Amino acid sequence: MYKNSKVLALKYRPQTFADLIGQEAMVRTLSNAFSMERLAHAFLLTGVRGVGKTTTARLIARALNCESGHGGNHKERFEPCDDCPNCKGIAIGNHPDVLEMDAASRTGVDDIRELIDGVRYGPVQGKYKIYIIDEVHMLSVSAFNALLKTLEEPPTHVKFIFATTEVRKVPVTVISRCQRFDLRRVSIDALKAQFEKILEIEGVAVDPMALSLVARAADGSVRDGLSILDQAIGYAGDELIGVELVRGMMGLADRARVFDLFEQVMRGEIGTALVGLRGQYEAGADPLVILEDLLRVVHWLTNLKLDRDSEVVEVLPEVDFERGKNVAVSLHMQDLTKAWQVLLKGHGEAQYAPSPLE
To answer: Which residues pair with 130 in a beta bridge?
Structure first.
């Protein structure tokens, strides 16, 4: 039986760079920077929610202050040892030289001035004094201006690590003074493989197709996916986490039925299509999700039409590949273009409609 006092997102938070999934380019760049001793004085981590920005910031802080890397010894070790006092202190959040600030709640210039006042003092325990500022785009203009001079010429014992979901709101004067890393959305396959490992450790039975639905709903966010899994585990109890359970819990549409719906609309069978749509709605599917799935179907069929034999074309779960190729052949590109435009307009209108189904 599944027993867990911690939510999965916290229990399986990466403790090493090797544990980060889907961010190989960033890990390689950081590894080379450590081995070549070309470490930036400020890092900017960007990406959607739940891809590992704050986790990466803490890993960088641990790697910089890990005692195995002291004395110019970074070449010998990139991964934090997880055993020295500095690594342990940063991991549990009580290290005196690593200060985390949430810019969403402390946006003013006075908060930044208070931070800057401490920059002139050296580290107490580690090699570097490290400032981690989360959601840095929330800082006010005056706060950014107060930070600029220190950011341009910081003391050698100070490192800044910024994290943001909205990099466009960060002034270019700040971005230009940082080494920027764009954390990518994690692919569905990578998410599914990670979730399979976690559920195997937890001893939870799951249908692989249900796991595909969870990975798709996570939209590239590891944290979102693990939150959905936590909910599914609680909903299932001791039962298998199956496709219908996940659909019922999340209001997801059946992709095979969505494909049927698309074919009915393109054949002009409006009555049948409306009955099918109503059936999915009554089964718990969100009309907006159905429209999004219809858009994915059109996109998939367009790719199939452009390159019918390509092996890189995404395979839609629950939809037969040969069936998709046959439909793509039967439709003209103008039909697919018009369908895309109509669905896109309908999706926008449904978001603000009192009743999305109507």
So the answer is: 98, 159
Q: How far apart are CA 122 and CA 231, in angstroms?
A: 45
- How many CB atoms within 10 Å of residue 235? 14
pTM of the entire predicted model: 0.76
Ramachandran region, residue 315 (left: φ > 0; alpha: ψ -120 to 50; beta: rest): beta
Tens of pLDDT, residue by residue over 14-34, are 888 888 888 888 888 888 888
Pick from 60, 59, 55, 54: which is nearest to 42 by CA? Answer: 60
Residues 144-161: b if buried by 16+ CB within 10 A, e if exposed: bebbeebbeebeebbbbb
Kindly give, in sequence order, each residue whose CB lies less than 8 Å from that of residue 173, ignoring residues fewer than 6 positions away. 144, 148
Angle of helix 222-236 versus helix 208-218 axis, rounded to 10: 140
Closest to 185 in 3D by CA, of 51, 355, 11 = 51
Q: At what angle do helices 222-236 and 188-202 cross, to 10 degrees?
A: 40
Query: For residue range 187-217, what is the model confidence (pLDDT) as tens digits?
Result: 888 999 999 999 999 888 888 888 888 888 8
